[in-house]
Specification:
binds guanosine-5'-monophosphate; alpha+beta; five-stranded antiparallel beta sheet; HIT family, subunit A; HIT-like_sf; HIT-like
Length: 139
């Protein structure tokens, strides 16, 4: 079964589409966190960020890069929070990669990306060194 976002791509359900090219599409979020809240997706269905092939990932970033100023200017935002919920445990509800562009305004009562974290770990220097070395070895 195709995702709700694939149905938008196919024109099977309506959406306020604000940009479209061969591989990506951007449309307004149906339940916006702020005026202008926009989603940018690859047209093909990939569940997680790293399921997206490199060439499409490049296109996806190009569309995000294009849409951020368009959204900010359109609603006269002071800033934007730009983020992916990457996986169910991170809050991803629609299993089709999507980048949120959320306009932000001075005094809007929202928080930074750091507000997503639960209990923060208290990591010793050697643990941080081990984690950094492990990540580096996989990059
Ligand atoms: P997630 O939690 O998966 O990162 O975000 C999914 C987003 O998709 C939510 O912000 C939600 O409001 C939006 N959304 C869900 N269904 C629809 C839909 O049918 N149309 C549009 N335009 N947005 C949707």
């Amino acid at each position: 079964m195709s995702t709700i976002f694939s149905q938008i791509v196919e024109g099977e359900i309506p959406a306020r589409i604000v940009y479209e090219d061969e591989t990506t599409i951007a449309f307004l979020d149906a339940n916006p966190l702020a005026p202008g809240h926009t989603l940018v997706i690859p047209k093909d269905e990939y569940e997680r960020l790293n399921d997206v092939p490199e060439d499409v990932a490049t296109d996806l970033y190009a569309t995000v890069h294009r849409m951020v100023p368009a959204v900010e200017e359109s609603v006269d935002a002071d800033a934007t929070t730009v983020a992916f919920n990457n996986g169910e445990e991170a809050g991803q509800e629609v299993p089709h990669v999507h980048c949120h562009i959320v306009p932000r305004f001075e005094g809007d009562g929202g928080g930074p990306i750091h507000a997503i974290a639960g209990d923060r770990p208290d990591l010793a220097d050697d643990e941080l060194d081990d984690i950094a070395a492990d990540i580096e070895s996989r990059a």
